[in-house]
Amino acid sequence: MEEIFQIQLNKENETPLYQQLADAILTLISDGYLPANSKLPPIRKMAQHFGVNSVTIVTAYKYLEQKQMVYSRVGSGTFVSPLPVEHIPEPVANRNIRTYGSELSVENAINFSGTSLPHEMFPVDAFKKAFDEVLDREKGGAFSYMDGMGYEPLREQLCRYLESYGIKTTVENVQVISGAQQGIDIISKVMLHYGDVVFVEKPTFYGAAGAFLSRGAKLVEVPLENDGMDMVKLEDYLKLYQPKFIYMMAYFQAPTGISYSMEKKRKLLELAEKYDTYIIEEDNFCDFHYSKEAIVPLKALDYKNRVIYIKSFSKILMPGLRIGLAVLPKKIHQAVMEAKYTTDISTSGFIQRALEYYLRENGWEEHAEQMRKYGSGKYRKTLSAARKYISGMTKYGLPNGGVSLWIELPEGIGAETFCSRMLEKNVILTPGSQYSLNGEEDSHVRLSFGNLSDDQIEVGLKRMGDVLRELLKK
């Protein structure tokens, strides 16, 4: 660090002193004299040595921080960036949010782009009885507004459900919401201001990304490995930015299907505590697990109250219910309640009462087991067809859960081109660019199998293999 004190400042020079100092420190960093994460001298010591005002040193350090060459830690000081400047991600402040597949209308197409399950899997008879019982019991009161947090008997049922996954909470911390997307939007409304930074997985779910960007946030993508985020890069980025929160999916991540290892879940919580940030854990597919390994959501390990857990029931029950839950840290609970009220006053009281009756009378596990059995069958059928028709040409993970496969195409075949060719064969797939913040060309496609017959899965994968072979010959 002695090299810093050998810097010469020229008070006769037209270049401001802070700029001279900052440029000299930048050169020392670039030349390797100041290693990553080394601490710069304290402001007062620097000011005394160079005979300048403390403001000059503060301004120089701020200038270097804006260039991402250094980072500051409250109460600890200023440190050299852990990454070369060319490896520092530029936060994304805007993107063209779009959905692929939903706008396509191809007659008799095999549609691998939807994640909903067939209507015949919905517990229609049980809900019909629940609706009738609620109407008989409540009469017109069934349609009255509900408490902003949600129907308390329903929240009690939801606490029991959460406990089955190791999440121990109370009705005071559970907020009923109109689906996961509303939960994400409300949290964004409460916590984000224009220019705030949010960390997301790379690739990430476009619905969440759109909500964050709509609030003026800037997004930093953290690369995914096969068992969760790259924790080394995550900590490097945490040193450089002060994100309001980290958005992630612990199980069967959309779109990759990746699940976090226990080691990475614990590390993620450790880093959130160390760098004083929150984590939004969205859970859409946790119930669709096809192995005997225990499911442990990140929230179940959250002893420091860093995790905002958002759960949707649209996949496991029925999309049209538009109901879910959020488990909230106490610090933000009141603000979330107020934001929920200004959004829609409350989630449908009739639906909440019906869901409470359904859960009380039917429990949860029997229907969940039926859905897992169904999903597991489709998953294994898809793997069988993939091995038969596209193995050797593509790569794909084995998520053992969820309702999709994330398929890497052969080198030189772009996903957009491939999806266009598949449309000619009456097969709809989702290109990986849909999940890229900058919309760049990608070599992956997402194949969702939950709403297709076994014959459609077989025919669709066979057509994929045929098109791949055609493209590889060119």
A few lines on this structure:
By secondary structure, this protein is of the alpha/beta class. The protein contains 14 helices and 16 strands.
Secondary structure layout:
Layout: H1 17-30, H2 43-50, H3 54-66, E1 70-73, E2 77-80, E3 110-111, H4 124-138, H5 152-163, E4 174-177, H6 180-191, E5 197-202, H7 206-214, E6 218-225, E7 228-229, H8 231-240, E8 245-248, H9 262-274, E9 278-283, E10 307-312, E11 324-327, H10 330-344, H11 349-362, H12 365-389, E12 395-396, E13 404-408, H13 415-424, E14 427-428, E15 430-431, E16 444-448, H14 454-473
Parallel strand pairs: 3-14, 5-6, 5-8, 8-9, 9-10
Antiparallel strand pairs: 1-2, 4-11, 6-7, 10-11, 12-13, 13-16, 15-16
Helix pairs in contact: 1-3, 2-3, 4-11, 5-11, 6-7, 6-10, 12-14
CATH class of the largest domain: Alpha Beta
The end-to-end distance, rounded to whole angstroms, is 58 Å
User: How is the CATH topology of the largest domain named?
Assistant: Aspartate Aminotransferase, domain 2
Q: Biggest sheet, strands in spatial order?
A: 4-11-10-9-8-5-6-7
Number of strands: 16
Give the count of helical stretches. 14
Helical residue percent?
Answer: 40-55%
The largest pleated sheet is described as:
8 strands, mixed
Estimate the global geometry from the Cα principal axes.
globular
Series of H and E elements: HHHEEEHHEHEHEEHEHEEEHHHEEHEEEH
Poorly predicted regions:
none
Per CATH, which architecture of the largest domain? 3-Layer(aba) Sandwich
Beta fraction of the residues? 5-15%
Mean pLDDT: 91
Count of discrete structural domains: 3
What gyration radius follows from the Cα positions, in whole Å?
A: 26 Å
| Estimated structural class | alpha/beta
CATH H-level superfamily title of the largest domain: Type I PLP-dependent aspartate aminotransferase-like (Major domain)
